[in-house]
Amino acid sequence: MNRALTISVAALALGAVLTACNKGNTSGLPMNTPTSESNSVADSGSGSAPRVPAPLNTASLLSDACTGLSSSALSQLQLKAGYRKTSNSGPTCAWDSSVSEYDTVSISPIQSSKGGLSTIYDRKDKQEYFEPTTIGGYPAVFADPVDRRKDGRCSLHVAVTDELEVLVFTQFSKSKAATNPCPVAEDVATAMIDTLKAG
């Protein structure tokens, strides 16, 4: 192989690597979930988050995230029927707004970690915003490594058991919520808690 051909092959390989990196997060979802390369703290959590008062039954949610919102909740939140998506965190369901096709909310049970909400608490120094709250009496926190709330994106992590958190994510561009999306994320999370409580 001559020198020119060797350089061409190397350049093509580098281009493939860069292309793969750029395709890593095409969904718009925050890159805020632990992976298999995460440290042991992310895998098990340190217990730094508030405890869940009463663990919810999450069996249906884990098998199908679209069961996370009831039909009455969808009507109240003005959302269309959900559709399933895949992510590195586990099953995800997304719902488009019935008012604007450009606005979407999603629910993702984070199964890649057993640390629950403590996984986020243990990494709060890596978040651009970190705002603890409660949703229906359950510990939660608004947090994301990149603050895109002015762009209609809000990440709300909700503890449904001490070992499982659910990421509620908004992606708005057209509605009034595009400049203040977190209250909508809170409404969706509240409806999810009510749905899980009802079984």
UniProtKB/TrEMBL annotation:
InterPro entries associated with the record: DUF3558
Annotated region (Disordered), positions in chain? 27-52
Compositionally biased tracts (Polar residues): 27-47
Top-rank lineage group of the source organism: Bacteria
Give the signal sequence positions: 1-22
Q: Which UniProt keywords apply?
A: Signal
What is the name attached to this protein's record? DUF3558 domain-containing protein
Q: Which organism is it from?
A: Amycolatopsis xylanica
